[in-house]
Design a protein that fits this description.
Layout lengths: L1 E7 L15 H4 L3 H6 L3 E5 L10 H9 L3 H4 L3 H8 L9 E11 L7 E4 L8 H11 L2 H7 L4 E4 L5 E6 L9 E2 L17 E2 L2 H15 L3 H8 L7 E8 L7 H5 L3 E4 L3 H10 L17 H13 L4 E6 L1 H7 L3 H26 L3 E6 L4 E2 L4 E2 L4 E7 L11 H6 L3 E2 L4 H7 L1
Parallel strand pairs: 1-11, 1-12, 2-16, 10-11
Antiparallel strand pairs: 2-15, 3-4, 3-6, 3-9, 5-6, 7-8, 12-15, 13-14
Amino acid sequence: MKYVLIIGDGIADKPVDSLGGKTPLTAVDCPAINRLAGGRLGLCQTVPAGVAPGSDTAILSIFGYDPRTSYTGRSALEAAGMGVFLKPGETSFRVNLCAIEGETFDAAKILSHNGGSIEGEEAVTLMQDLIHDPRFAALAAPIGFSIHVTPTFRHTGVIDAAHEPQGAMKFTEPHNILGSDIAPFLPKEMLCDELTALMRVSYDILRDHPVNKKRMAEGKLPANCIWPWGPGKAMSLTSFNALYGKKGCAVSAVPLVWGIANLAGVDAPVVEGATGELDTNYEGKLNMALEALRAGADFCCIHVEAPDECAHGGDVEGKLEAIRRIDTLVVAPLLEKLGAIDPDFRILILSDHPTLVSTRSHDGDAVPFAIYDSRNPGTPRKFDEESAKATGDFLAEGPMLLRTLFA
């Protein structure tokens, strides 16, 4: 028996005015996903009450780890995804390259939480030039702050154990305040002045950087300011094999999912061309998952970030297209090819959390899920929020999902 988990990041939503009061899942035609809904269809509360909704807490929950006891901060997971395993006393941060606009830093608005989707050599060049600039280094050294650079807009900052913050820290997720003045949302409480100073000097250094001048000449947004958030401490997880007796693989484009996989002892291969954006390499991700299952994995997770990114940008049409591509480029060929590996298979599809195009932010409501069994496929039906709710099937905790899949 082979098992596949498909996470369409943020595909769940609330009714959208421009879609005639329909949710994106209701508005879009997805025949392959509807085949999956011919099995078990219901709602699951992936994020427990009182826990901030996000892919970090939700995907931990989906994998079987209670975020109320296992979660120490998003950045600790992303750090592990990039091979940075925190030592006791160290504090990590997610460090986004953002696009802001203003005559001065303090009067700026945030335009993009991902620096206009910057990636590759441009992202590396900007970050390397920033951390080696004497102005930035002079502010980072007194608090033991360093940055591990990646070829994406996401980077990992670490404060060493000798400078461990001894009080509360308060940050705002940049994707939740797009279009807003940044001043009310700068770091607060412990080390707020020091971290804000690093953000301010990053704007001074990066706003006129040649990479950003080139990007603006091409009509792109500049990646001109770092934004630290999501502080975390060292985290450990019970191995996936110990929890379920299964050998697993997780295919994603984002360090967060790689980190959960690494901490759980699950393989996390990197797929060339997998970006986390709408143009990600869907075919490559599917082929990597099938290859892992052929090679002996019992379980594989395919995570697609694109719907969430589109929703954070308020892009309704982009979110619809991302869901269509999951249907046509992931689910349909998966149903066609998986039986050649093992005729007996089960597929679980769901949203990790809703991401609302109306607010461009995450929501903590229950999400629709479907479990398809090749031995009893059922009759296709609509996969959306209302259809799932109408079944009356409700899982109260995210960690029940994989136990249900494997049962």
